[in-house]
Design a protein that fits this description.
The chain is of the alpha/beta class. It folds into two domains: about 230 residues, Spore Coat Polysaccharide Biosynthesis Protein SpsA, Chain A; about 90 residues, no CATH class. Helix content is about 45%, strand content about 20%. It contains twelve helices and eleven strands. It starts with a strand and ends in a 9-residue tail after the last helix.
Length: about 325
Amino acid sequence: MDISVVILSWNDKQYLEVCLQSLKDAKPSRTMEIIVVDNASTDGSPEMVETEFPIVKLIKNQENLGFPKGNNIGVQASRGKYVYLLNSDIKVLAGCLDALADYMDQNPKVGMVGPKILNRDLTHQSSCRRFPTLWNNFCAATGLAKVFAGTRLFSGEHMFYFKGDRLMDVDVLVGCFWTVRREAVNEFGLLDEGFFMFAEDLDWCKRCWEAGWRVAFCPAAQAIHYRGGSSKKKDAVWLALTQQRSVLRYWKKYHGAAANFGIRCLVFTHKASRWGVAVASYLIRPSKRKDSEMRMKVAAACLRDLFSRHSAEGVGTMAQSDAINAVPHA
């Protein structure tokens, strides 16, 4: 088997059907298998796969296991030389699968490659990131990354200055669409299941680089990411806490005490300023009070959690107690 496509799905029937149809229409010249890992959907997604796409291997989890664990189940069930991990709201365009496999064939030191990701209007969607540093997090927290969005120096982790117009090695590929070499994964390992969602892409790409494999961006291959929003269906506070805990877990895993103190100070400053802005908006914009209240609630929850015992321990305890939260990247 040359190509294994693994799709993690959670209550995303409409987009999953589009994704599977695009794979059928953009069938590569190589041998391919498609595996859908369903994280206990209740919207009829598994039944749709069984009825409309009987050739697809469907794995039905009895509970929502999270983004890393759900994908790992699919990878372990796959047989391909190259494994493509797709969000369910991805539409694969013609030639994409072969272009990625061709690139891997021609570059044996590349362990992971991603295509050019497009918005639904076919404009470029940023899918490359730099590893987090105190500096790029400072730029994001203070707003410098927005003011100087087109510059590398003041940008945050997201490479918004990069327009996806050339082939290049990158630190991190956002996890909506990865192509990984099985030989490489056998060395640097599966996704870290200590992350429930968020930051597992940083961790996986970092381990790929540390194992001596390259991570690359290949614009010759293209796909549309609808950002259908499995995560948008979740509570805003839950999402914010999950993301914050995942970020702090990543820093604890790879950085020392001084850097961890620094990132916590930046997170505190950022959340405190967001709370202050939300309070001001609540007072001076009565028509927006509902939105302001939610932003105040989210920021306050993050500030409280920053000093809790759960902070920086990952999201395992919290996430596993909420069995419906394993979602693809938004």
